[in-house]
Amino acid sequence: MEKKLITAIYPGSFDPITLGHLDILKRASTLFDKVIIAIAINSEKKPLFSKKTRLKMIKDVTSNIPNIEVDNFTGLLVDYAKNKNAEVIIRGIRALSDYEYEFNMALINRSLEESITTTFLVAHQNYTHLSSSLVREVAGLGGDVSNLVPKNVIEELKRKLDAND
Ligand code: PNS
């Protein structure tokens, strides 16, 4: 019997991608045949980084992982997942406080599309305190984020802050 290939979507704002996201993504890439990391574009949110820069930052740090694709989407996540023939949505859980929000999101997504299963991966203990919003705040105030984000993101953060000087 032919082996069924499973595609998973790892969605998020990734504004910017952090080492915590990257850890989840790498773990997911060992569990599924293909993982699509998909930036959700929400016209009501004003991100720090443009869609183009976020895509570039993620492509740069994932170029050495063969089964990862980088993309973006608008609209409902489950519609996007169906379009991509994905059966799994991956979300990282850092602490119990994440769980309620993630649990509700998983239930809403399941009520919208029964065939897609949300899977939670536990974030590495080094990154349980880490979020993109903290990175933006610390970097904006001149703090060191070198142990929180990949190198190319540090460069983009510097570029952004210099431009706003
Ligand atoms: O990184 P984030 O901001 O926690 O990611 C949240 C995200 C983008 C995964 C979520 O808001 C989402 O799926 N947005 C797409 C719109 C959608 O499908 N909404 C219904 C499920 S909440």
Question: How would you sum up this structure, described in words?
Answer:
This protein is of the alpha/beta class and 165 residues long. It has one domain (7-163): Rossmann fold. 43% of the residues lie in helices and 19% in strands. It is built from six helices and five strands. The protein has helices at 19-31, 51-62, 77-83, 96-112, 132-140, 151-163, and strands spanning 7-12, 34-40, 68-73, 88-93, 117-122. Helix 4 links the parallel strand 4 (88-93) and strand 5 (117-122). The mean pLDDT is 96. 4'-phosphopantetheine is lined by residues 11-13, 40, 76-77, 105, 108-109.
Number of strands: 5
Distance between the termini: 61 Å
> At the fourth CATH level, what is the homologous superfamily?
HUPs
CATH class descriptor: Alpha Beta
- CATH architecture identity: 3-Layer(aba) Sandwich
Share of residues in strands: 15-25%
Q: Which series of helices and strands comes N to C?
A: EHEHEHEHEHH
Tell me the CATH topology: Rossmann fold
- Main sheet, how many strands, which sense, barrel? 5 strands, parallel
Apparent shape:
globular
Task: Name the strands of the widest sheet in spatial order.
Answer: 3-2-1-4-5
Bound molecules: 4'-phosphopantetheine
Helix proportion = 40-55%
The secondary structure category is: alpha/beta
The unreliable regions are none
- Mean model confidence by pLDDT: 96
Radius of gyration: 16 Å
Q: Helix count, per DSSP? A: 6
Instruction: Tell me the domain tally.
Output: 1
